[in-house]
């Protein structure tokens, strides 16, 4: 079988269940808390444990892929994630569930960076936009489908099915990969940078815990202040150590590449805005407008349609002709306008307008997802792809956590409810403020996108059906005005 097909199938399936797992589990947390008779702030550890585990193991994923081979590590991570999902489904108490979620995070932390590296090694630079459009499928569908399936399972079957749903996907990906995925030669891995692993894993883990819990427990709580400070200090120390290492686990020298650096900045800011809003909009639908979990999920789903349609427009037309700089700038402007307009929604009667805006949120973000992933790796060598993927995914994961923390803090500071005639009623102004904050962050990302170097990304700017990059044609046909 064509390895481009084989790698795409395995990676899409693996990434889909990994990304969906977060949103589908969040829907089930209240029900899990009731069954295990634990408080809401305790059941949150089910989500936090997974995120912290992801953060700890993402940094070492690139080294493991280079040392043991991407195919072996990829399929092993699928096994870990799938087995952990089954164990989560049979957990008998909160302690067991959190432990199995941490195990899930081990698989998830290895799965995505190694899979992305495998994908970009399989697709040459002139096909990177096509590869990025493949990444869009799980990135778009999983977050939107999770709340819908989670609502159905919790309401009609059992919360345990939010974990069991991963089993057929994981088994399919594993069997397909064992049969069709070729072995890939290991790249030069060198010795494991133990100091880099301990500092990056502990630093990211503590920081992820702090920013995830801060909005709910209070940023002034000693526990939150200590974990955020310790995580930040360890990451600063990690930077100092890694820049002096001859064979670093986290190769920060990759940021000397201006295209890779700028693409990561744009993607990180985009993740803060987009992933933060996906979390807040579910609260807006349910707590603000009084919709059910299922109705909330269905109202969020147009975002996925927007991403899928937008990715086709980007890959077929915009990216090859305009380049990544203008493509991302246009998309981020669309995203900013859509988010700002969300602040005008006040009633359930305007729900259809909200769904239209969700479509444009996804449509605009598709310009960023596709372009940043294609352009960001344009100048990265094959030997550096795994470690570049590690950095890319760590920043995106941290950006999503920061987005949720930042926007949740805005809601908490303004107050999600107000006292009216002796009754507590939703204070929609709190959610409106978060949409405006997210719009402002998107505008910051749009400004950063203007620093993208289209000339450096030229090898990826290939029109479908063409045999050479767009930049190989007469300069006036692809020239981009200076920013």
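^ Assign residues to that structure.
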């Amino acid at each position: 079988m064509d390895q481009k097909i084989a790698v795409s199938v395995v990676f899409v399936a693996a990434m889909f269940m990994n990304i969906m797992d977060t949103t589908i589990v969040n829907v089930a947390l209240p029900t899990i808390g009731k069954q295990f008779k634990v408080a809401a702030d305790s059941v949150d550890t089910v989500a936090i444990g997974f995120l912290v585990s992801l953060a700890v193991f993402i940094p070492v994923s690139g080294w493991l892929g280079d040392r043991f081979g991407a195919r072996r590590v990829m399929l092993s991570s699928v096994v870990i994630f799938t087995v952990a999902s089954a164990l989560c489904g049979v957990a008998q108490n909160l302690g067991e569930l959190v432990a199995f979620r941490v195990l899930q995070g081990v698989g998830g932390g290895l799965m995505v960076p190694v899979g992305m590296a495998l994908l970009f090694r399989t697709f040459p630079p002139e096909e990177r936009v096509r590869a990025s459009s493949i990444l869009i499928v799980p990135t778009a569908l999983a977050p939107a489908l999770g709340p819908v399936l989670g609502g159905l399972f919790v309401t009609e079957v059992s919360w345990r099915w939010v974990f069991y749903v991963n089993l057929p996907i994981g088994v399919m990906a594993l069997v397909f990969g064992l049969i069709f995925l070729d072995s890939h030669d290991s790249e030069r891995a060198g010795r494991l940078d133990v100091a880099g692993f301990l500092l990056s894993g502990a630093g990211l883990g503590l920081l992820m815990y702090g920013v995830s819990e801060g909005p709910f427990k209070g940023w002034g709580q000693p526990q939150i202040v200590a974990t955020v400070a310790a995580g930040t200090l360890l990451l600063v120390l990690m930077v100092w150590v890694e820049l002096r290492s001859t064979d670093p686990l986290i190769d920060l020298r990759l940021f000397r590449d201006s295209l890779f650096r700028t693409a990561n900045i744009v993607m990180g800011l985009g993740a803060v805005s987009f992933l933060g809003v996906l979390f807040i909009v579910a609260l807006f639908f349910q707590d603000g407008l009084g919709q059910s979990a299922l109705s909330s999920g269905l109202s969020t789903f147009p975002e996925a349609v927007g991403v899928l349609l937008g990715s086709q427009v980007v890959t077929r037309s915009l990216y090859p002709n305009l380049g990544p700089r203008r493509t991302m700038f246009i998309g981020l402007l669309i995203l900013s306008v859509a988010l700002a307009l969300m602040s005008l929604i006040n009633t359930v009667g305007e729900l259809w307008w909200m769904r239209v805006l969700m479509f444009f949120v996804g449509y605009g973000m598709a310009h960023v997802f596709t372009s940043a992933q294609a352009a960001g790796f344009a100048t990265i060598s094959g030997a550096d792809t795994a470690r570049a993927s590690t950095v890319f995914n760590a920043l995106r994961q941290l950006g999503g956590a920061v987005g949720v923390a930042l926007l949740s803090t805005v809601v908490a500071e303004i107050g999600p409810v107000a006292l009216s005639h002796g009754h507590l009623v939703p204070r929609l102004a709190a959610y409106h403020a978060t949409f405006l904050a997210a719009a402002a962050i998107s505008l910051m990302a749009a400004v950063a996108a203007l620093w993208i170097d289209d000339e450096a990304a030229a090898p990826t700017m290939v029109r479908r059906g063409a045999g050479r990059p767009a930049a190989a044609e007469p300069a006036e046909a692809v020239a981009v005005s200076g920013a």
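Confidence is low (pLDDT under 50) at residues 470-483.
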